[in-house]
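Appendix C: a fully annotated inverse folding record. The material below is reproduced so that readers can follow the format used throughout the book. The structure is listed first as C-alpha cells, followed by the designed sequence.
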C-alpha cells in the first residue's frame, strides 16, 4: 500500500522527505530557536512515532526541490482527523509552500471530520493563510498559533522545581481519559476515544 501511495504522489506538489534528509531539516530549524522549537520537536516526535508504528498516517513533506526550498509541511492523520503544521525559513520557501498547498492532491480536505493547524507561528500563518483559506473554504480549520516561552539553559538549571502539596507525579492510565479530555483545549468529537484506544501516557508524550 505504501508503495502504491509513493507512485501516486511521485509528481505531487508536496514530496515526502527521505529519511536521509530529516536530519538536514532539523539542522535548518535548530539555529532558529526559539521560534522554530515547536516545529523542530513536532517533526522529531512524528518521525519517532512513524518508526514505532509504521502504519500511522504520518509524513514530513517539502515542496518540489526538497528542504533547500526553505519550507517544510508535516502532518498526522487519525480517526479521520488531520493535524498539520509547517515552518518556513526564507521568503522563497513561503511562496513555494503556499503554491504547493493549492496544488497538492494528497489531502481530501472536505472529508476530514476535524482539522487542526497547530504550532504555526504568526509569521508562517500570515504567509500560508491565503492558501489555507482557499483549500478549506467550506470548513475553516482550528488554528492554533505558536507561543514559545524561552529561557537560556543556564537560567533554567537555577530553578528548584517541586511538586505542590497535595499533588503527585504519576503515570496516566485509561481511567484518566475522560478527565483529561474534559479539560483538553483541543478536544473534539473523537478525542475521548483516541485517549481510550491509545496509551494515554504515550499520547501526551506525542502531543506535548
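Designed amino acids, in order:
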Amino acid at each position: 500500500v505504501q508503495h502504491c501511495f509513493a507512485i501516486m504522489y511521485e509528481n505531487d506538489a508536496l514530496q515526502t522527505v527521505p529519511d536521509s534528509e530529516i536530519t538536514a531539516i532539523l539542522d535548518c530549524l535548530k539555529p532558529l530557536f526559539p521560534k522554530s522549537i515547536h516545529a523542530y520537536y513536532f517533526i522529531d516526535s512524528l518521525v519517532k512515532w512513524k518508526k514505532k508504528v509504521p502504519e500511522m498516517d504520518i509524513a514530513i513533506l517539502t515542496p518540489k526541490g526538497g528542504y533547500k526550498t526553505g519550507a517544510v509541511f508535516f502532518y498526522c492523520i487519525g480517526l479521520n482527523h488531520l493535524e498539520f503544521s509547517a515552518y518556513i525559513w526564507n521568503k522563497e520557501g513561503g511562496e513555494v509552500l503556499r503554491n504547493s498547498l493549492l496544488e497538492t492532491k494528497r489531502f481530501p480536505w472536505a472529508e476530514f471530520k476535524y482539522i487542526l493547524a497547530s504550532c504555526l507561528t504568526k509569521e508562517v500563518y500570515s504567509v500560508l493563510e491565503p492558501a489555507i483559506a482557499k483549500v478549506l473554504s467550506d470548513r475553516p480549520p482550528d488554528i492554533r498559533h505558536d507561543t514559545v516561552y524561552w529561557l537560556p539553559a543556564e537560567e533554567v538549571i537555577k530553578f528548584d522545581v517541586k511538586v505542590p502539596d497535595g499533588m503527585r507525579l504519576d503515570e496516566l492510565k485509561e481511567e484518566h481519559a475522560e478527565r483529561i479530555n474534559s479539560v483538553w483545549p483541543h478536544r473534539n468529537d473523537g478525542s475521548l476515544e483516541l485517549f481510550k484506544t491509545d496509551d494515554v501516557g504515550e499520547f501526551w508524550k506525542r502531543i506535548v
